[in-house]
Amino acid sequence: MEKTGCVIIGAGVVGLAVAERLSLGSSEIVVLERRDSFGRETSSRNSEVIHAGFYYPASSLKAELCVEGNRLMYAFCRENSVSHRRCGKLVVARTKEEESKVLSLYEQGIANGVPGLSLLDARRISGLEPAVPAHAGILSDTTGIVDTHTFMKRLERRAQDRSVTIAYNCEAAGILRVNGSYRISVKDADGSLMELQCERVVNAAGLSADRIAAMAGIDPDKAGCRIHYCKGEYFSVSGRHRGKLSHLVYPAPTPISLGIHGVLGLDGALKLGPSAFYVNEINYDVDGSHRHDFFEAVQTLFPFIEEDDLSPDMAGIRPKLQYKGEAFRDFVIRDESDRGLPGFIDLIGIESPGITSALAIAKYVEKIMK
Ligand SMILES: Cc1cc2nc3c(=O)[nH]c(=O)nc-3n(C[C@H](O)[C@H](O)[C@H](O)COP(=O)(O)OP(=O)(O)OC[C@H]3O[C@@H](n4cnc5c(N)ncnc54)[C@H](O)[C@@H]3O)c2cc1C
Fold first, then answer.
1. What burial class does residue 144 get, using C-beta atoms within 10 Å of its C-beta: 0-12 exposed, 13-18 middle, 19+ buried?
2. Peptide bond just before 57 cis, omega within 30 deg
3. What is 228-320's CATH number?
4. Distance between CA 342 and CA 318 in Å, rounded?
5. Among 296, 297, 311, which residue's Cα sits nearest to residue 253?
6. Mean of pLDDT over the chain
């Protein structure tokens, strides 16, 4: 049986960031990834936005790790040549009711310590985005966009340069606690099984994180960490509107998502999304019949868009702890010693702002491991 110090399950952005961080202090790290490369699931199916941190309640991990992650992300991108753009973002109010929602976001952002936030009136908004009608809004100048593929590639390379083994096509298929260590059954692409013994486990399995916790003996329902899949579809906007927006432009958020907004790519292309609806299975097809709903959702936000400008693009699935109608749920990041699993770190419900927070999550994991 092979032995190592720490096994990280999952090579999405979070597993890679944790591997890169822990490799500063240890070379005995193996990352298990069931796909043939990194970031094949949620980490490559998202808006690639570097969030600022004003959407989440004060004192939540989401707020704390997003604000810190935003700062760490810009520094990492600069030092490691990862393409990014600090384009800024407007959250706009189209009605009086939305105006109070946007004002509370601003106040929450100030309470969370988000830098670079300002309140705008209609005149200032039309100066910044002439094609977007609005009563009022906020400008966040620390929001930006990033090339998440290159970000992950750099994390992978830095971890490998410090002797981390990243084992692709290797699925964690079972976890046992035996004589004070963990034994992980690993299934390769041919279905062959081998065992890996380690002292510590980091569960960064994204959409399967509740199943990995269950493998270790935790009941996800009793522990309050059952994941619900919440799909988000995107529609691309005709190239004739390229360059019409220079900021990310969002409406006021809904209880389960940030609302269908304008997503800018680093290449200047404009997309709309993501929508938010709960599903029972993982299926990334985009339903073309949702086009009209997208068109209606943005009619007052982007009046220059016509329905024929929209084409189905891609979809991602959020690993949500919050189910329909339930209250806000925070990231779950905990050492499971209290459940008889010392050195077993669960990372569950790492939905947005998971990309932005990845480097701060990694620091947090390092801290709780000590
Ligand atoms: C529609 C959408 C838009 C989003 N937009 C943003 C945004 O703009 N900004 C932002 O900050 N965040 C955003 N997010 C959130 C962000 O994408 C996620 O928080 C982040 O990608 C989660 O990364 P992860 O590493 O935890 O999970 P994943 O990327 O899902 O990685 C988990 C990995 O674990 C592997 N795995 C699972 N089970 C096993 C097993 N048994 N054995 C081995 N490997 C296993 C999987 O194959 C996968 O590669 C968005 C999410 C969605 C869905």
1. buried
2. no
3. 3.30.9.10
4. 28
5. 297
6. 96
What's the CA-to-centroid distance between 142 and ligand 1, angstroms? 23
Residue 162 — pLDDT band, cuts 50, 70, 90? Answer: very high
Residue with CA nearest ligand 1 atom 27: 206
What is the per-residue pLDDT across 80-97, written as a single tens digit (0 to 9) for each?
999 999 999 999 998 888
Residues 165, 8: contact at Cβ < 8 Å? no
Burial class (CB in 10 A: 0-12, 13-18, 19+), 233: buried
2-45+149-226+328-369: CATH number: 3.50.50.60
List, by residue range, all CATH 3.50.50.60 domains of the chain: 2-45+149-226+328-369
pLDDT above 80 (res 256): no
Ligand 1 binding pocket includes 12 (Cβ within 6 Å): yes
Please compute the mean of the pLDDT values over residues 263-287 and round it to a whole number.
96
Atom of ligand 1 nearest to the CA of 215: 41
9 lines ligand 1 (CB under 6 A): yes
pLDDT tens digit sequence for 325-370? 899 999 999 999 999 999 999 999 999 999 999 999 999 999 999 8
- Helices 13-22 and 148-161, packing angle to 10 deg: 30
Which residues of the chain form CATH 3.30.9.10? 228-320
Do 28 and 221 touch, CB atoms closer than 8 A? no
Token output for 31:
């990352």
> What contacts 24+ positions apart, CB below 8 Å, involve 159-165?
159/16, 159/19, 159/20, 159/23, 159/29, 159/31, 162/23, 162/24, 162/27, 163/23, 163/27, 163/29, 164/19, 164/20, 164/23, 164/27, 164/29, 164/30, 164/31, 165/4, 165/29, 165/30, 165/31
pLDDT at 310: 98
- Please state, in angstroms and rounded to a whole number, the distance separating the CA atoms of residues 142 and 266: 16
Q: What is the pLDDT of residues 37-62, one digit of tens each?
A: 999 999 999 999 999 999 999 999 99
Q: Which residue has the tokens 């822990």?
A: 22
Residue 283 Cα to ligand 1 midpoint, Å, equals 15
